[in-house]
Design brief:
Number of helices: 19
Keywords: Membrane, Transmembrane, Transmembrane helix
Pfam family, one: MFS_1
Order of helices and strands: HHHHHHHHHHHHHHHHHHH
Shape: globular
Number of domains: 2
Oligomer: single chain
InterPro entries: MFS (IPR011701), MFS_trans_sf (IPR036259)
CATH topology of the largest domain: Growth Hormone, Chain: A
Structural class: mainly alpha
Helix content: over 70%
CATH architecture of the largest domain: Up-down Bundle
Protein name: MFS transporter
Largest sheet: none
Radius of gyration: 28 Å
Distance between the termini: 91 Å
Amino acid sequence: MPQPSPDRAPEPLPAVTQDTLIVADLAPRRRPVAKSPSPYRRLFALPGTRAFTIGNLIARLPIGMFGVSTIIMIAASRGSYALAGSVTGTGLVATAVVAPWIARLVDRHGQARIAVPATAFAVLGQVTLLLCLHYDAPDWTLFAAYAATATTPNIGGMSRARWAHLLKEDADALHTANAFEQAADELCYMVGPVLAAFLCGTLFPEAGMLTAGILLMTGMLVFTAQRATEPPPSRDTRSAPPLRARGMPPLLLGLMATGAIFGAMEVITVAFADAQGSRSAAGPVLALQAAGSCAAGLAFGALKPSGPAERRYLWCLAAMTALMTLPLLAARTTGSLLALAPALLLAGMATAPTMVTAMTLVQRRTPEGRLNEGMTLAVTALLGGIACGSATGGWTAEHLSPTTGFLLPPTAATLALLIALTYGCATRRTRP
């Protein structure tokens, strides 16, 4: 058998195999494409943000419990809803006066140093109110005790100030954070009254106030313990007050008109449900409005904003004006609470985007080092609008009709839009 010559070159591989090897060697290797995390996941990936958010939510929930708990507790003890309403109204007035001062101290001395003792003083006022009712003290003591709760710090403003401090170089992330904070507001105002009514009804009338006080103090301690994310105190007193900052007064007027929408809608919906013989259904129906706002806020925060915030604010106000006509149409054309429910759900979807954009403008127009004070002024304007809207809505429902009262929310929204247009709130820009 012949042997192969050692000088003979080896036979080449088949052409197909060579081409296959060359192609396999030169072909790019496919790498798995990593999915981009959601804006909210990136937000809470920052160190310390989850911890202060947990404390913020615990302390924020009682804000929606205090009003209902106070009304139920005083009405059960003294048998007077008029007295209960007057006491809570006094608390709102006291908050409007005291809250900006507390916020100014927070800006100058730090959140932990001021918020903890201020919260403790507010909880002491709640305990005093309970004792006054238990021992049948004179009515004037109820007003004094509840006014003392006005020292409660604006936990939402302090949380937004932390986000602004952490994300001052990332406008998109700050937009997402503001949307989350607004959704948290809606959630707490949706769950808080229901929880308070449940506790007061199933346990004892004081249960709602006691639970709210414990949650407030616990949440504030957890929140302020996160010192790594706390904005540094600003001792620079030379900057102008936020109220005199350029573009701030018309913005606050617009927020007051927006608050009137909320106050009027709440009272009118309760009156409308009562006229239908379903007063107990008013709470769940109003919760749908808050649910719509919460869902829209989370969706709005996941979007990347385009264009200046001033322009977005105009569009949001226009959308809110249009959507607030839906409850009016539902009440007038059907007179049914069942038809009003989805109308309120849709109307609520314009609330959170409007509030998120408004708070963004407040942050930009507030002078450096006074952010807590600026945010508290915004909340105070909202509370003032809510009080005016509640009073006007109650008068309209009683002297005209609940259906006629549904004219008030779109009217207030139109007023907010006109303020923005008239005073140049959509075009004045103080910061890029």
